[in-house]
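Dear colleague,

Following up on yesterday's call, I've attached the two folding results inline so they're easy to grep. Please treat them as preliminary; we haven't cross-checked anything against experimental data yet. The first protein's sequence and structure tokens come first.
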Amino acid sequence: MNRTRIRERLKDVELLICDVDGTLRKCTVKGQNTPHRPGEWELMPHIRETFLLIDWTRMQIAVATNQPDVSEGKVSLRMARALIHDALDEAGVPSGRRHLEICPHPKDADCVCAKPRPGMFVRLLDSARVTPGRALAIGNAAIDRRAAKRADVRYMDMNEFFGQKKAIGAVKRITEAVTPA
């Protein structure tokens, strides 16, 4: 990834809305999708290198994440929040440029915030004072793509954005196949 390519991708963008698990970080505990305590995660490849190329004086970052383990008592909301901020710290994102929305509800809850519903995206856009046309969502799953579409925010798969060539074609085909119009 180079600075020119990042500037090109972010030319009209003021807010990056990212998923966290599987996009910015991965859990290192076998059988667990999300970390529950420090030391249970690592950044995904190319995250720090890419974020170091971003001009954070004009860019903000937002994280929109479903964290059902909170409702199951596996991790507290406070710890989930702290672990996300730890990942953003490690990625080199300045603390004053961050917005965070967590859906702590169970996977089957009928809440307004859980992706693929656009609730978290709408609140993040409002919090950052950015219009949907000036935002870019980055994720790794069909629910990320659907939430972005429902919030009228452009979407880019994390493999494409962070320059992870491996499996880009397969991910795109699968995501597009399961994403309703």
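Below is the second protein, in the same order (sequence, then structure):
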Amino acid sequence: MRELVISGANQVLLEALQRYQVRFLLVGGLAVHFYDPTREVGDLDLLAEPTLQNARRLVTALRTVHVFPDPGAAERFAEGGFGFELKNYWSLSADILSEPVEAFAAHWAAASDAVVGSVPVKVASAATMLEHWSRSPPRRADDIERLRSFLAKVRTADTDHGAPHA
């Protein structure tokens, strides 16, 4: 299983999410780094399952790292399209996003397993991130190119070994 490294408060956040059994996917720079280790990582971006039960566990986990969402945050998160920007809390540099539950289930099924520190995680597939970022601002252009390059290498390797295209 591939190991990824982050430090400080973001690692503590992942440990809290694991402790409270929050279902989430790594997306963003750390996920791109999973596919292209030359990608430098700045912050932590997560896509959490938007069910009410998961959102309540998420809010509980956030409280353990000194982030105190307002009342009703779990309900809004579970509705999808709501997130937590954790840039000014206790040295955190993270974003936690949501989307409709059906989309999350498909992304979860396509995700890869990894470990960050001692925390087992799921990393969004390159195809999932490309799908999301195809509508993104130009700042994602470098990450899009890295993911396309990764997928091209996978297709080439599959073709060279007689396997069907990815």
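For the second protein, one point worth flagging: Residues 131 and 144 are 10 Å apart (CA to CA).

Best wishes,
A.L.
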